[in-house]
Design brief:
- By secondary structure, this protein is mostly helical.
- It has 6 helices and no strands.
- The longest helix is centred in the middle third of the chain and has 14 residues.
- The N and C termini lie close together (11 Å).
- The mean pLDDT is 97.
Amino acid sequence: MDLDAFRASLDESSPPSGLTPCLTALWLDARGDWDGAHALVQELEGEDPAWIHAYLHRKEGDRDNAAYWYERTGRALAAGSFQAEWRVIASALLEQ
């Protein structure tokens, strides 16, 4: 699946089958379900879930918590738009 197809899937009522948990979390967030996205990545380990966790806390407005999660990924606290960061994360995960 490429980014365009992933973004088009946001018009559906449920995420496409076969998505990784990280991509499912991004799908949920893009559909306005921050809590569902957070609950999903909160249960996962690794750099990708931490990156999404960081993004979600930055979006929430909790910069200190976001900074902690960005640090765990080795990334600096993001400063661009949420939409741009979402696209960067989704693209990176879709390329894996």
